[in-house]
Design goal:
The complex is a heterodimer of chains A (about 140) and B (about 190). Chain A has about 140 residues and is mostly helical. Helix content of chain A is about 55%, strand content about 5%. Classes of the chains: A mainly alpha (about 140), B mainly alpha (about 190).
């Protein structure tokens, strides 16, 4: 027979595990809804993966850049900043619960990294495809 | 009885004198401790530079690089730097306008030209009024303090790579200490200048 304290503990545990996942899902869904309201969609995981790999030659240094340059091919593994060498935590929400849990961070890093990688901002369609791919890893 | 008492005293005095000598020689021998800071005062704190006490700054700037203390550059430098975040040493570090404003206020209010800490005073004194350095490592003060280091220990050292990684050699840089006694260059355990 379960004591009240035991049940409470179990309940808390379930809450602790599911709340971050739920907030992550809703944050991503809100972003996707925002892109759709800008005329984008439907979004496609495979298309997102292609974009993840897509290389663009940088105008200044003449070298090809892609998301994988710093984040690597496997989103469940650590990445490494190409210039500073700084370790980058895995992007996959499945192994790193903090990822994709803040709308502000998603906006900030899409803006910075699209410009750094491709030399321009990403379109709502590209962001939607990439986000669909990332959440799926 | 009296004899043993005076013996004890002479031992205590000798020890005290010796410790005092060690202390003085330590101050004299190390080339940048306890420097006289001019303007009729000694630096006010054991810290070399005021430590970072702003969580937002640590989060926003420190998530990509060592969160340099604001007291390491003058306010005019921070202003220029924060005005060009889309090309931040060839990285894109753009922030939304409100966040950038908030960080600029913190940086300029605690900048080298508003601080009495000894490194801040030193850096500030080494600049002419028209200098607007964007790199701490380009200030004359910084160069003077690091001139004895051969390139192989920093740039050519795969464990360091750049002077921008303060904390890799200055083991207590994050707490605001840049004393040479706390320096450990990775891969050069026995090195001592």
């Amino acid at each position: 027979m379960k004591t009240g304290a035991e049940m409470l503990r179990k309940g808390l545990l379930i809450l602790l595990v599911t709340v971050p996942l739920a907030s992550q899902a809703s944050v991503v869904d809100e972003q996707l809804a925002g892109y759709r309201s800008n005329g984008a969609g439907p979004f496609n995981v495979q298309k997102g993966e292609q974009l993840w790999q897509q290389e663009v030659v940088n105008a200044k240094d003449g070298r090809a850049r892609s998301c994988t340059t710093c984040h690597g091919n496997d989103l469940r593994s650590m990445g490494k900043h190409i210039k500073t060498g700084k370790a980058i935590e895995p992007l996959s929400p499945a192994v790193n619960a903090e990822r994709l849990s803040s709308a502000k961070k998603i906006r900030k890093w899409f803006k910075r990294n699209c410009k750094w990688t491709w030399g321009r901002e990403c379109t709502p369609q590209e962001k939607g495809d990439l986000l669909s791919f990332m959440r799926n890893q | 009885m009296d004899n043993s008492k005076s013996k004890t005293w002479s031992i205590v005095l000798t020890m005290g004198f010796t410790l005092g000598l060690i202390g003085i020689s330590g101050m004299v021998l190390s080339d940048d401790d306890d420097e006289y800071e001019g303007k009729g005062r000694w630096s006010q704190s054991r810290l070399d530079v005021a430590s970072v006490d702003n969580a937002f700054y640590k989060e926003e700037c420190g998530s990509c690089h060592f969160p340099y203390q604001p007291g390491l550059l003058p306010a005019r430098s921070w202003q220029r730097l924060m005005g060009g975040l889309e090309d931040h040493f060839a990285e894109n570090a753009e922030l939304d306008a409100a966040d950038a404003r908030q960080l600029t206020v913190y940086l300029t209010e605690n900048a080298a030209d508003t601080s009495n800490y000894k490194r801040s005073l030193g850096i500030n004194r080494s600049l002419s009024k028209n200098d607007v350095p964007l790199r701490i490592s380009s200030t004359r003060y910084f160069k003077r303090k690091h001139h004895e280091l051969p390139a192989r220990m920093v740039k050519g050292n795969p464990q360091v790579r750049s002077f921008s990684n303060c904390e890799l050699c200055h083991t207590q840089a994050a707490q605001g200490f840049y004393n040479e006694r706390q320096v450990k260059v990775p891969g050069y355990a026995d090195w001592d200048d």
